[in-house]
Design a protein that fits this description.
2 domains; OB fold (Dihydrolipoamide Acetyltransferase, E2P); DNA_pol_a/d/e_bsu; DNA binding; DNA-directed DNA polymerase; nucleus; Purple Acid Phosphatase, chain A, domain 2; elongated; EC 2.7.7.7; disordered N terminus
Length: 439
């Protein structure tokens, strides 16, 4: 009787739509093009948007370019911020004879009290003053509108700031109003010294419904999707020094992929999964990272439930929009700006309508010539970022009724934590897998 009830247990299904096309590099060819073009494309798109918002913000003020500024005359200027940072590493310093020996104040962060902001458009640039625009909050690459006036010293005294704000959001459909769960996991780091194969297997067994009693298996049957958010393997840097590998080193190089493929094959046989590349995975370094080659997964890639995706990754499940990265964009923001927690950085990127504002200044990205793929034109329902120190979440509410679930997904290898999201109400919780035996 018990066997029959288990046989009748069916996994729930959901409709899937990939929206990664914007992040795929197909016809683009690198011919030594400069990065200025991606900044021009960003400024053009964002300026059009900000101009449309100005009438509801300060309709009585004229909009000027930097070149048209007049001393003492109040106006609005729109442009790209550049942050001058005293401690920001410079590649030219490597070749300088008079290299500074002053230690960094904070090795993990390059902020300094003397940092200042500059606004730039096609006509020129101007240094910004006043206390309204804090250098600790903003980074190079953000496009804003500023209300203020030019001072006798030639700077622009900022009196007010207008950001793009959360993009418009498509209303969530009623058909998703049943319990369906999406599981997020990142930082498996298979092949690292701290990885725990038993912990990985517990995760797989839980997702596929091979653990627990009937009630737990019933909950597992409501998991409709798994997203693996980068850094799935870790390969010793000593093996990647460009020299021919000995046979034993080749085995060490391929072993993490074999182990990962075995785990993914078990999952793909049971439910759909997306795998994104991360900074430690064998993918291109610059964003957007292209999908991991399917030849790395000879077992799991044979299933139509297996999808190798880009980073950033955008998709819809039952018309609920998900947008996320493997963490590089947020990790870079933490080096060049400050916030009370990582969720603040996520919120800022949404309000700036840009996934990676520090690219290409301090974050590697492909030199697009006619577009900026990191602009956010539609507000996601779920915005996730992987490979963080700990699990954090917040429900962000916009002025036009937008609701966004922000999620920081911790490194599984270090924490044993995966994140589960209920598509019915966007509530989420941590799922912890431990293998220690209590005494």
């Amino acid at each position: 009787m018990e066997v029959d009830s288990q046989e009748q247990l069916q996994r729930k299904q959901s409709t899937y739509l990939s929206l990664d096309e914007n992040f795929e590099i197909q016809k683009e060819v690198y011919r030594g093009q400069q990065y200025s073009q991606i900044y021009f494309a960003r400024l053009h798109m964002m300026r059009t948007l900000l101009y449309s918002l100005v009438p509801n913000w300060k309709s009585h003020l004229p909009v000027c370019t930097v070149l048209e500024l007049e001393e003492g005359k109040e106006c609005i200027i729109v442009g790209t911020l550049y942050k001058h940072m005293k401690l920001k590493p410079c590649i030219l310093d490597e070749y300088s004879k008079e290299r500074s020996v002053a230690p960094l104040i904070k090795p993990h962060n390059f902020m300094h009290q003397d940092d200042y902001l500059v606004l730039e458009d096609e006509s020129g640039r101007v240094k910004l003053g006043g206390t309204k625009l804090s250098p600790s909050v903003y980074v190079t690459g953000v496009v804003v509108a500023l209300h203020g006036k030019e001072t006798s010293a030639g700077a622009f005294f900022v009196e007010d700031v207008l950001e793009a704000g959360l993009p418009p959001q498509i209303e969530r459909p009623l058909k998703s109003r049943e319990d369906k769960y999406v599981v997020f996991v990142s930082g498996l780091s298979i092949g690292s010294s701290s990885s725990n194969p038993l912990q990985f297997q517990l995760l797989v067994d839980h997702i596929t419904g091979h653990l627990g009693d009937e009630e737990e298996q019933g909950l597992a049957a409501e998991i409709v999707h798994l997203v693996i958010v980068g850094n799935s393997v870790e390969i010793s840097h000593g093996l990647l020094n460009g020299q021919n590998l000995a046979s034993k080193d080749q085995s060490r190089l391929s072993e993490p992929f074999k182990e990962l493929d075995i785990l993914l094959t078990q999952i793909a046989a049971s439910l759909p999964l997306d795998i994104m590349p991360g900074s430690s995975d064998p993918a291109n370094f610059a964003l957007p990272q292209q999908p991991l080659n399917r030849c790395l997964f000879p077992g799991s890639a044979t299933y139509n439930t297996f999808r190798s995706c880009t980073n950033p990754h955008c998709f819809e499940l039952d018309s609920i929009r998900f947008l996320g990265t493997s963490g590089q964009n947020i990790d870079d923001l933490t080096k060049y700006s400050e916030a009370k927690d990582k969720l603040d950085f996520l919120e800022r990127t949404l309000r700036w309508r840009h996934l990676a504002p520090t690219a290409p200044n301090t974050l590697g990205c492909y030199p697009f010539t006619d577009r900026d793929p990191f602009l956010i034109d539609s507000c996601p329902d779920v915005y996730f970022v992987g490979n963080q120190e700990k699990y954090e979440t917040r429900l962000l509410k916009g002025l036009e009724g937008q609701l966004v679930r922000l999620i920081c997904i911790p490194r599984f290898c270090e924490t044993g934590v995966a994140v589960v999201l209920n598509m019915r109400n966007l509530e989420c919780h941590a799922l912890t897998f431990g293998t220690q035996i209590s005494s």
